[in-house]
Amino acid sequence: MQKWEYLVVFIGDSKVAPDSSEADNALDADTYTDRLNMYGEAGWELVSFEWTTEGAKVALKRPKQG
Fold first, then answer.
1. CB-count exposure of residue 62 (10 Å: 0-12, 13-18, 19+)
2. Which among 9, 21, 24, 53 would be 20 to 30 A from 66, CA to CA?
3. How many C-beta atoms lie closer than 10 Å to residue 9's C-beta?
4. Is there a contact between 56 and 11 (Cβ–Cβ < 8 Å)?
5. Is residue 32 over pLDDT 90?
6. Contact in structure between 43 and 61 (CB atoms under 8 Å)
7. How far is residue 60's CA from residue 66's CA, in Å, rounded to a whole number?
8. pTM (2 decimals)?
9. Whether the predicted pLDDT of 60 surpasses 90
10. Is pLDDT at 45 greater than 70 in this prediction?
């Protein structure tokens, strides 16, 4: 049976809520994309993404080794 390990991280960028007209969504998207690609290269798969007022909380999983 496959076993998994999980990682929950906070990706912070903007101090502005994502639905605010002041948010630079293009800049934020680049930051999140770069970080998620970094985790993907390490074998992590994104399973949830939740916006917060200061960034995003993400949960990732990958097959457990051993």
1. middle
2. 9
3. 15
4. yes
5. no
6. no
7. 19
8. 0.73
9. yes
10. yes
* Mean predicted confidence (pLDDT) in 13-42: 71
Q: Which two tokens stand for residue 33?
A: 């994309």
Which CA distances in Å does 27 have to 3, 14, 24?
36, 9, 6
DSSP 15: S
The two tokens of residue 34 are 């770069």
Alpha-carbon Rg for the chain, nearest whole angstrom, is: 14
Whether the predicted pLDDT of 52 surpasses 70:
yes
- As given in the structure block, the two tokens for residue 24 are 């630079």
Element holding 8 (H helix, E strand): strand 4-12
